[in-house]
Amino acid sequence: MIFQLGELIVVNSTPALLQFNINGGLLETPFLLPTSPGIWQQFHTKWFSGNSTNATISIVDQQTVPSGNDFALDDIEFREICTVEDSVFLLVHKLIPDADFVINHGCESDTVFFSYVNQGDEYPTEFHWEFGDGYTSDDENPTHIYDHKGIYTVELTVSIADCDFMLTFEVDTEEGFVPLAVYMESYDETICLGESVSVTPIVYGNGPFTYQWDIGDGEIYIDEIFEYTFLKRCLDLHIVVEDVYGCEQSEDVSILVLSQPEIVPVENQFLCHDDSVEIDLSYIDDYVVWNDGQNLKKGFCLMKENIAIMWKIILGAKVLIPSIFMNPDFL
Predict the structure, then answer these.
(1) Beta-carbon neighbour count of residue 223 at 10 Å?
(2) Given this model, what pLDDT does residue 46 score?
(3) Which end of the chain has the smaller Cβ count within 10 Å, N or C?
(4) Is 219 helix (H, G, I), strand (E, B) or coil?
(5) What is the spatial distance between Cα 281 and Cα 30, in angstroms, rounded to a whole number?
(6) Which of 183, 237, 223 is nearest to 205 (CA)?
(7) What pLDDT does residue 98 have?
(8) Residues with Cβ within 8 Å of residue 114, at least 6 apart in sequence
(9) What region does 204 belong to: left with phi over 0, alpha with psi -120 to 50, or beta?
(10) Each residue of 264-278: pLDDT tens digit?
């Protein structure tokens, strides 16, 4: 039920402070009349009758100043509240964005394939990607190339009916990528002509790897371990290693191939017991080993070409067989 009336102040004095009282109970907050006289104001209060069948209604002036006040009442009405019901349809949009990505590694730059993953019942109408390196895209499933390896913060904003929803995640293009590096195991840096050499590379990176050996003979050798018998002088080997991403790393290997020394034939001589013989090997600039058929006798390394080696051996009836080796380790 609602109880309402019109009221005004008659005399400009202390304004009235009115409040409805039904069945001995005050309702809501008091209503303070304006201070200017002759202005009608509407005053109303709601009352929920519940199970009550009778109502004793009164208007109480809560203003208690001794001078009192004068006011007028009109259009007093007590009636039931009429209600009207209606319904309104509200559509609340809710998107749950998610994303996936695949990294295609390169030596320097990396290509990343992004794809939108929808987790809700509605599907976005607009997409906006920020890749973390200053570049953007409005495609649903964009492809982006990062010029340098690193960790990038990617932001995806999807929209529907002017409602925006955001997803933030990181892309690490360094993860799973090992920079290609090539080293060599120890190998013989000096060999004699006709000997074999074996060179094994130590490779770090993303395999499987391919190998290309070039020794300058017009051929390319593709085995991982290089094995070769040198029949002519060769100073430089060049290897190129390529990993699964197409990255290449090269190394140079230097091997000194020594020619076999030339021995000038010495004529056979027949000597008597206790005789001696002299053989001049001054043309050989290396270590010399004499073999008299029983014992090895070492010579020494020449420091100057004009020094001759004179080695006297008491042979008895034995034959002198000179043997010359270029590798000092043999001695």
Answers:
(1) 8
(2) 80
(3) C
(4) coil
(5) 137
(6) 183
(7) 94
(8) 99, 100, 101, 129, 141, 142, 143, 144, 154
(9) beta
(10) 555 655 656 555 556
